[in-house]
Every structure is written in structure tokens, then in C-alpha cells.
């Protein structure tokens, strides 16, 4: 499966510190369920429904903190929590079954078919941690 050339992703800190090589024509699309104020000012728009569902986020964050309290490093705790809560399967189910996510996926897919250059943005640096952006890009690519 090949990702379209006009679909990319990055994380918000990379944008803040000029670490991301993004075309000026690209639209920065947040895919965050609970964007902070500074996140909103960094992206052009945000699709909360493309972020993980609230119950999954809450459970994931709690397990992440639990693992850190047990002495795991942040990256290790993040990835262990990801596995323990079944993040990947639950997020894929959200994209396939939640009406608001399906609507957002259809809209983004239409925009890509019209050759709009989109960059998905959230908080995680995927060089170190797993992130829903990767799953989202796979899902969108399958739709194309």
C-alpha cells in the first residue's frame, strides 16, 4: 500500500521548533480529540473525531501513568500502555464504526482525491512512540 504523495504527518513540537519540512501549500490538519490552545494556534484546522475516542484516551493515559509510576521510562510506558489497552484494534474500530469518524474520513478522503496536500498533526513523535496518525494514514490510504 502506497501513501499518496500529498498526505504526510508530523507532530506539533516539530512544527514549533522548525523540525518538520512542510510545504507552504500544505494544510495542517490536527487529529486530536482534546486540542490545547497552543495546538489550535499551530494547525489550520482540527478533526477531533479522528483522534482516539475519549474512553480509549482516558484508559491509555491512566495505564501510561501507572507504568511510569512502576519505573518505566516515558517511551516504554507509552508503548506498554498502547499494547495493554488494545489501542490499535480499538482505534481502527472507532474509524470504521463511529459515525463522526466515518464522516471525517470521507471528507479527508475527498480532499485528497482533489489533490489537496494534507499534513496530519498530533502530539506524539513517532520516532519514539506509537501514534494513531500511522493507523489513520493506513485507514485513509485504504479508502483511496
TrEMBL record:
It holds the Pfam family DUF488-N3a. It comes from the Archaea. InterPro entries: DUF488-N3a. Residues 25-143 form the DUF488 domain. This is DUF488 family protein. It comes from Saliphagus infecundisoli.
